[in-house]
Amino acid sequence: MAIPNRNLKSIFDYLGLSNIEVAKSLHYDPSLISRYLSGQRHLKASSPQLDAIAELILARSQRVRDVEWLTEQFVASGLPTEMATVYRFKQNLIMWLATDGDTLRHNLSGDSRKELLKPEPTVVRQDGLVCAGTLQIAMELQNVLGGLPRGTVADMFLSSDQLSTIVDADIIALLMNIIEKNDLRIRMVVCVTANTQAMSLIVSGYMGALVSGHVQLSVVHGMTQTVTNQLHLIVPNKYALLVTETTGRLARAVATAVRDAEYVQEMESSFGVAWRYAQPILNIYDDHFTRNVIEVFYTEFCTPGALDIIKDNLNPMYMKEEEYFRFLATRGHSEEELVWRCSEYHRFKVDLHINLKNGELFREVLSLKRLDDIARRGVCRMAGNYFMENGFVDLDTEGCLAILEGYAQYMETYPNFQLLILDDFATLNECSCWHIKQNHHIGINYWKQKEPVMVYSDQLMLLREFQTHFDKLWSTGAGAIGNQLNVVAVLRDVARRMRVAHG
To answer: Which residue in 143, 378, 463, 475 is deepest, having the highest Cβ count within 10 Å?
Structure first.
């Protein structure tokens, strides 16, 4: 009795391949493909037909999500998960599709099973491995970058902002995943053209890593006519990947992996020169609080111009002065340090009120999920620079209540002070605060990692992307809580729950 080849059918269904399409691509009779699917004809691991079918499937599986789906099938079937190269992946695919695959896997021991797979050609282990297409490039990057020590700094040079590999959804997802898991940091230099949309795709694709400070982005202006566009990824003293694309972007990208130490070191030296002469489009301030940060805050809140804020906690700027001074007194400052901090905050409050009285528009987005968390815990963690110090600050219950009431009073006093509460934030906005001074700069405080950082940029190409993100968030108001009166009611309800829980 014929047993249908369910694995072959499932991959055809997943990729949307028909019998006729497969047969036409491989120059086979359609009836042969039908017999393979129905089980009337065996599809053996050693057959040239299965090798050809596997090649076709790999050619159609050019997205990382396709590879992930297949990997899940391999794991469920008990196949090895050691698939660092496309060649090994193909061998697993053959074993999964073969009608004699189960028999071979169950009859052979672990060591013998490895012998069943054809030996990988020596060339893929040599310096100069060539990868064709985004899938192979992604698998190579996963293999190399995924095994680096935490906190490794890699360098990336783009000869043009129009490279499609760097904005490919799978490459972005892969790099962002490794950045999050391994704390990978990237110094990126991009040669920019007059195509603002191209640079926009890079900024929006890596916005999360820009916010966290994991990607430091610099640009070089001016680009001559070129035959190809290139991306160079350098892991200092270890490895380089050279990706080349045609300017037409129709052909698949080709990449060459290099592990020759001398070559990598010379590339690293050349990148160092490019990095020094490139123009940073954002600055990253570490946890060492400086006068510069105070002046950034002053520019945002106290000088003419609209201000947009996305905040995943509470904003101390809206506390009454006496409440701010009370909390400062609990921080263990000397009298002299306490006096100048109080003086700075007073300066801020005076000019903030002048700004609002003059009709400057202030818009702020808060997270209801975060407000509920603050009400439950009775404290609010934020970057210390809001209180002119280093590290983190856990604002006490009394301080949190003062800010919640401050929000409500500002909304009731100034119609140009507007607040939106969303049910929850996207991952991009978690553990961060965005201050966008329209047409001037953006300052982002990020505190998800061990030490808080502040990212600052006055470059319009970057500012435009973050402003677009805010405007979409504000205009859609997905999950928003009603009008301004309702917002005030929600703020006071959060305060009420906090008083009940924490006195």
So the answer is: 463
